[in-house]
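Fold it.
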Amino acid sequence: MTPCRENKHHILSVKNLKVEIPNGAHPVEVLRGIDLTLGRGEILGLVGESGAGKSMLARTLVRLEAPAMLTGGEILLEDRDLARMTEKEISGLRGGKISMVPQNPMAAMDPLFSLKSHFREVFTSRVNRNGGNGYSSGQRSFLEKTVSFLKTVGIASPRERCRQYPHQWSRGMLQRGQLVMAFLSSPSVLIMDEVTSALDPTVCLQILDAIARLREEQGTAILLITHDLFIAAEICDRLAVIQSGRIVETGPVPELLDNSANPYTRSLMAAAFENGGTA
C-alpha cells in the first residue's frame, strides 16, 4: 500500500469548529477551534490520546454531536456548510456524500433486521440517489457486489453470513460489515473511527487493504481515526495530531514521524514505540 501524494483540492474543510457539552452555567468546550482539511482521494490520520476529542470530532462532522452543541465554525463539504444545515438537509447527505464507520458498530445496526437487509438498504439508497453510477438495482447485482465486498474484507461464507442478524456477528465482523456499507454507498468522504481496534493482525491487514482499495477505486477521501500510529504510518498520506480539543500539528507522515517540532507529537511517538504502536 503506497500512500498517494497530498491532494490540494479540498473536499472537506473545517474552520474554527467549536463544540460544547452543557454543564449548567459552565459548559465545557470539548472542540476548541478545530481547523482541518481533507483532499480528494486523501487518507488523513487523526491521532491523539484518549479524551483528546477524536470521536467527538468524528460525530460532529456528520452532525451527530448531540447532546453536545456545535457553537461555532464551518464544516464545508465541497461548497456546502454542514454546520448551517437543518437535520432534514444533513440527513440527505449523511450516508451518501459523507459517511461514518463508528467505533461501536452494533449501535449502528437494527437488531431486528438481517445483515442482508442492512446492505440492501444502503445499496438501494445509492441507486435511488444518483442512478447508481453503473449499479443495477436488480437483486443479482446487489448480491454480487455485496458478496464481493464481504470477501474483500475477509468475511468467510458471505452468502450464509448475510442471512444472519447483528447479534450473530462479532464486533470485528460488524466493523467490516460497516466498511462494506461504505463500499456500497460510495461516499465522497468517509470517517472511520477506530475501525481496527477489535481486530487481530491478519484481519487488520485485510481492512487496510480494503481501505486502500476504496480510495483507489472510488476516489473516496478518508479520515482515519486511530490510536495506533503504526497503522497510521502504513496507510495515511498525512497526520493530524489532536490534543485537548485542538489540532496542534499536521503534516505528511514522514515529516511528523521523523522531524516533529511539537512536544506533544513527540511524546505520542515515544509512547507508541514503547507500547508497540499504541499512543
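The beta strands are 10-21, 28-39, 43-47, 69-77, 80-81, 98-101, 189-193, 221-225, 238-243, 246-252.
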